[in-house]
Amino acid sequence: MTNPPTENVPCPARLVPVEDQPFWDAIDENRFMLAHCRCGAYYARLQACLRCDAAAQSMSWVPASGRGTVRTFVIFDKPYHPYFADRLPYVVAVVTLREGPEILTNVVDTEVATVEIGMPVKMVIRERGGQKIHQASAAVQFGEETASPPVRPSPSRSS
Ligand SMILES: [Zn+2]
User: Tens digits of per-residue pLDDT, 19-72?
Assistant: First the structure.
């Protein structure tokens, strides 16, 4: 037997700690939400507030802007999982969200060589391997703060 083609390798499953479950439940409903504390702080997971010590249970999940900037990133050009062998290269980045939290994500909708620190991005929800994930789209025009950026439809992929 030879190795199966990579198209048949399942995408690695999401690993969701219990503190992150509300975030991913929202992603599954195509909503990008953050936990919001009464003091104004935001978090991408359910946790006690680092600013005012409020309990995690006191947080409420609210729709977030999804906007942010790339704080740092790495270009992956080797397949660390066989699923990604045909999907190289790709970018893994830390994005600082406008509301404050930092989030680990991919930067998509651009050539990897154009990704740079400080680049504006907008979180989008895409399907990969039958699971919804958040990714940072670089194909977003910023300008008027009141205007909503165009929302690109999720690619419908059967794999
Ligand atoms: Zn707080």
Answer: 899 999 999 999 999 999 999 999 999 999 999 999 999 999 999 999 999 999
List the structure tokens of 59. 């947080």
Contacts of 77 (CB under 8 A, 6+ apart): 88, 89
CA 53 / ligand 1 centre spacing (Å): 6
- Give the contacts of 156 (CB within 8 A, at least 6 positions apart): none
Show me where the domains of the chain are located. Answer: 16-64, 65-142
Q: Give the rounded distance of the alpha carbon of 50 from its chain centre.
A: 22
Ligand 1 center from residue 143 Cα (angstroms): 30
CATH number of 65-142: 2.40.50
Q: Look at the block and give the residue holding tokens 């994930």.
A: 133
Q: What separation in Å is there between the alpha carbon of 99 and the centre of ligand 1?
A: 13
Helix (H, G, I), strand (E, B) or coil at 57: helix
